[in-house]
Amino acid sequence: MTNTLYMMDGCSKCAKAINHLKTNGIPYIKVNVLGNIKAQKHLKQIVGEIYTPVFQMDNGSIFKGEEILNYFEGPKT
């Protein structure tokens, strides 16, 4: 399994997540859920709704919305 970011065009939180993942060097593939029925069904299975952004890590961990930014911030000093 590969790290996957479920996103959609025009989503400001998605843009923040993309920037944050790139800044922190976290590899992932993007899946745009607009018009992608398979991706929409998968989101319903893993988070119970069609929502973006959702980051599913290769280990199965799932982060939704602001959780993506908070999880990858690292320790605060």
Protein architecture, described:
This protein is of the alpha+beta class and 77 residues long. It has three helices and four strands. The chain has one domain: Glutaredoxin. A hairpin with a 5-residue loop joins β3 and β4. The longest helix has 12 residues. 19% of the residues are buried. The model has no long low-confidence stretch (mean pLDDT 92).
Please outline what is shown here.
The chain is an alpha+beta fold and 77 residues long. It has three helices and four strands, in the order E-H-E-H-E-E-H. It is globular, with a radius of gyration of 12 Å.
CATH A-level architecture: 3-Layer(aba) Sandwich
Q: How many strands, what sense, and barrel or not for the largest sheet? A: 4 strands, mixed
The average pLDDT score comes to: 92
Q: What name does the CATH topology carry?
A: Glutaredoxin
CATH superfamily: Glutaredoxin
Our count of domains comes out at 1
Fraction of residues in β-strands: 15-25%
State the share of residues found in helices, binned by percent: 25-40%
Count of DSSP-assigned helices: 3
The coarse overall form would be globular
